[in-house]
């Protein structure tokens, strides 16, 4: 399996302060990922601090393309 995290660094709050905003997103999901079984097909949208959709994470099978 693969855990794939995609975040658009040129959108929303990430455009203004990518280092701080990406750090916030990573801290949030590091604590929240325990609520998911992490099986292929699991996914969730990722939002910036202004609640704008800026990406997603997903779990894919090992042979499946990550994009």
How would you describe this protein?
- By secondary structure, this protein is α+β, with helices and mostly antiparallel strands.
- The protein has one domain (2-60).
- The chain is 30% helix and 28% strand.
- The protein is built from two helices and three strands, in the order E-H-H-E-E.
- The chain has helices at 12-16, 18-32; strands at 2-7, 43-47, 53-60.
- Strands 1-3-2 form a three-stranded antiparallel beta sheet, with no helix packed on it.
- The radius of gyration is 12 Å and the shape is globular.
- The mean pLDDT is 92.
How would the global form be characterised?
globular
Helix content: 25-40%
| Integer count of domains | 1
In N-to-C order, the SSE pattern is EHHEE
Q: Structural class, from helix and strand content?
A: alpha+beta
> Could you tell me the strand content as a percent range?
25-35%
Radius of gyration: 12 Å
Strand count, sense and barrel status of the largest sheet are: 3 strands, antiparallel
End-to-end Cα distance, whole Å, is 14 Å
Strand arrangement, major sheet: 1-3-2
Count of DSSP helices? 2
The number of E-state strands comes to 3
Low-confidence stretches: none
Mean pLDDT: 92
Short description:
The chain is 30% helix and 28% strand.
Strand and helix layout:
Layout: E1 2-7, H1 12-16, H2 18-32, E2 43-47, E3 53-60
Antiparallel strand pairs: 1-3, 2-3
């Amino acid at each position: 399996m693969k855990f794939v995290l995609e975040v658009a660094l040129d959108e929303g709050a990430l455009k203004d302060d990518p280092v701080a905003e990406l750090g916030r997103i990573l801290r949030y999901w590091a604590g929240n990922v325990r609520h998911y079984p992490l099986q292929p097909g699991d996914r969730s949208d990722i939002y910036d601090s202004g609640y704008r959709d800026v990406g997603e994470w997903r779990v894919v099978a090992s042979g499946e393309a990550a994009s």
